[in-house]
Amino acid sequence: MSQSLEKLRSRMSEAGIDAMLVTAIDNVRWLTGFSGSSGAALVTQSDGIFISDSRYREQAGEEVRGLPVEIYQSPKSLAETMAEAAKNLGLPKLAFEAEHVSVATFNSWKERFNGVALEPASNIADQLRMVKTAEEIEKIKAACGVADSCWSHVQRMLQPGVSEYDIGLDIEFFIRRLGAQLAFSPIVVSGPRSARPHGYPSERKLENGDFVTMDFGANVDGYNSDITRTIVIGEPTKRHREIWNAVLEAQLAAIDAIRPGKGAQEIDALSREVLAKYDFAKYFGHGLGHGLGRLVHDIGGMNAVSKDILEEGQVWTVEPGVYIEAFGGVRIEDDIVVTADGCELLTHSPKQISPT
Ligand code: ZN
Ligand code: ZN
Questions:
Q1: How far, in Å, is the centroid of ligand 1 from the Cα of 21?
Q2: What are the structural domain ranges in the chain?
Q3: CATH number among 3.40.350.10, 3.30.390.30, 3.40.30.10, 2.60.120.430, domain 3-129
Q4: How far is the CA of 210 from the centre of ligand 1 (A)?
Q5: What is the per-residue DSSP string for 184-203?
Q6: Least crowded by CB within 10 Å, which of 107, 147, 159, 182?
Q7: Model confidence over 64-95: pLDDT tens digits?
């Protein structure tokens, strides 16, 4: 039996769930290994079934672990096939992933699942998915390795006269040329534009005195990396250094505090305390980090309202930023995995205020 299926069943029994429908495609993939775009799994303590459509007949046969595969084809629908499976298994009630089902879908299910009580369940597979297996961590490390090589490759572009757009393309080309996919479309923002945390590259050309922020990542074998560095073009001023050093100090303090059992919200607050010492906390408008894995913004948030508790094997980004309108911004982002007594950095690019 697959490790994920075992984990899901034990979480279900803790939560008093006898049967569960897993429909969020990232959770389906985590649970079964199926990499197609449409499918669902119905899991009970002793039984279960994976359902997909005829486009994925061969792929499902090759990839799905731990559950028998049922394939439907038009005019039948996924919902119809799931409802039939629930009735065949004689289930009186069935939990479903409340966060991932729209009201419209739920209403259509209610008709089809006639006789089977549908009960919303929260954060069952999602929570489990936050803790990565050794194999998943290896894939994330590979994606981080591509991002690190990309950062050193792009250094030669960091000079006056080069456009943000060309830097963005250089990043894209390098990642694709290594046989990886882009985790997301790279962010390259310079000068006053660097005050936009998620701006896309423009035709603006770099000038002396600019902050330049680059945020990019690679996807290797379905797993992502996500790194940000900010540098200054030309000689950094005192103001550049104050902002940049404060962001680095906030990031290092957060990384240093990460260990199992700590609240993600505590780590976020700590980074804000560091920035507050320099009166920069008001310029830090987003959360400190997010879970990273199959999705770039995977389950889990390090922010002021997070209830997540850090656990060994979770992978997070740590990315404080300071954004001052009309002047510019700095963000420094690394990826970490929580270990038994702290955390291990997965991205290793140097953190320097000037290009190398
Ligand atoms: Zn990022
Ligand atoms: Zn990020």
A1: 32
A2: 3-129, 134-345
A3: 3.40.350.10
A4: 20
A5: SPPEEEEGGGGGSTTPPP-S
A6: 107
A7: 999 999 999 999 999 999 999 999 999 999 99
